[in-house]
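Exam review. A common question shows you a sequence with its structure tokens and asks you to describe the fold in words. Practice with the pair below. Do the first one on your own.
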Amino acid sequence: MKAHPLLPGGPVSGPLLRLTAPLSFWGGVDPRSGAIIQVRHPQHGQNVAGMILALPGTIGSSSSAAVLLELVRNGHAPAALLLHEADAILLIGCLVARELDWPPPPAFRYRAEQQAKLAAGSYTIAEDGTIRPF
């Protein structure tokens, strides 16, 4: 399995949190804890911190970049982002974190159809996007 690197980094390892619905970080994720707080989201109550977060889509607000930046600053960011398509807003949050010398999660494009095939468990993602279970 191979994802397309959007914002290189890695290798990273962690448990997979595969979302089954799009998510907005603004109003959908608590920047202090990493908990998914969007009440109607299927994964409501789960936490993105340290996870390889597979997002089948995002619901954009430009403030999502700030929420991701706060997650990085607070040590509750995902270990990596697997995005159905490049999301400029989330990538801006990662880039700003990098400019501030905070470790941003690497981001990869990995289509929702491919994400759906990932079994529960932990994975390692190499800098080139190679995904392996561990």
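Now try the second one, then compare your answer with the model answer below.
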Amino acid sequence: MTIKVGDKLPAGTLSEYVEVEGNGCSVGPNPFTIEALTAGKKVVLFGIPGAFTPTCSAQHVPGYLAQLDALKAKGVAEVICMAVNDPFVMGAWARDLKTGGKVRMMGDGSGVYTKALGLEFDLTAKGLGVRCQRFSMLVDNGVVKTLNVEAPGKFEVSDAQTMLKQLG
């Protein structure tokens, strides 16, 4: 079953590579529960097929970086990018795109959370395994308020500009 507007996010954990020890986090991969990431605040969560991939690196993540201040002005506390990649890869990609302190780059290494959302995308025939569909959602205190899922190979509705419009 695919997540939909009005649903509470399923329980799960994403991992983030932390560069600097602090706030109870050690250097390296740290697990974060979805509940803790979304409790009591508005969060934009967007998913991508994979780190370092062309559209994700050139458009999707940079779009959210460029619109971060506008999103925060509309009440968004955090922007989180997730992919079916391990936290080491997501950390390297975060360094490459200079997302530190801006967009959190979180790994769903085995795709368990992606499957819990019902947003998996099987690219095994192309040698890429099961990935995450490209999507964006606004989550308010753990409840999905908007959801934009892309058709395979498309990048039309999960971008930062669409999210800004949906925030009003």
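Model answer, second protein: The domain at 13-167 is CATH 3.40.30.10 (Glutaredoxin). The mean pLDDT is 92. Full marks require stating both points clearly.
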